[in-house]
Design a protein that fits this description.
It contains five helices and four strands. It is mainly α. It starts with a helix and ends in a 21-residue tail after the last helix.
């Protein structure tokens, strides 16, 4: 899978995460068959957060459950999760965090449409 396909696949999975649910970068990487690329998933999600993307990037959290404090992005992510009804807690060091046990979305597999599967690609 090349970089463009990987990025598109990450976006595809992010779009599948239901409201009031969260998942981790590591789980998305696993779903894509690339379990060592959770950091790359994190980079794609961070990029989405810096754009006006309609994708629910805020539903993707680090494996530790800590909401990254990336300037305003952390506050935006925390607020968006709270608006959806995902409980955001304050950790012992003042960090914002979520509990996967309560709000986690961890399907064993998903169907990810690749560029080659798209009807538009073949002109149909």
């Amino acid at each position: 899978m090349d970089t463009a396909q990987f990025n598109a696949s990450v976006c595809n999975v992010v779009q599948m995460i239901p409201p009031q649910k969260i998942t981790s970068c590591a789980h998305i990487a696993k779903l894509l068959g690339e379990p060592t690329k959770s950091r790359r998933v994190s980079e794609v999600v961070k990029f989405l957060g810096q754009t006006s993307s309609p994708l629910p990037w805020h539903r993707v959290i680090s494996t530790s459950g800590i909401i990254a404090s990336r300037g305003d992005l952390g506050r935006v992510q925390s607020s968006a999760l709270q608006v959806e009804g995902v409980p955001v807690l304050t950790g012992s060091f003042g960090e914002s965090r979520v509990e996967f046990g309560q709000s986690g979305w961890f399907p064993e597999q998903v169907y990810v449409v690749s560029e080659m599967d798209s009807d538009d690609e073949w002109g149909a």
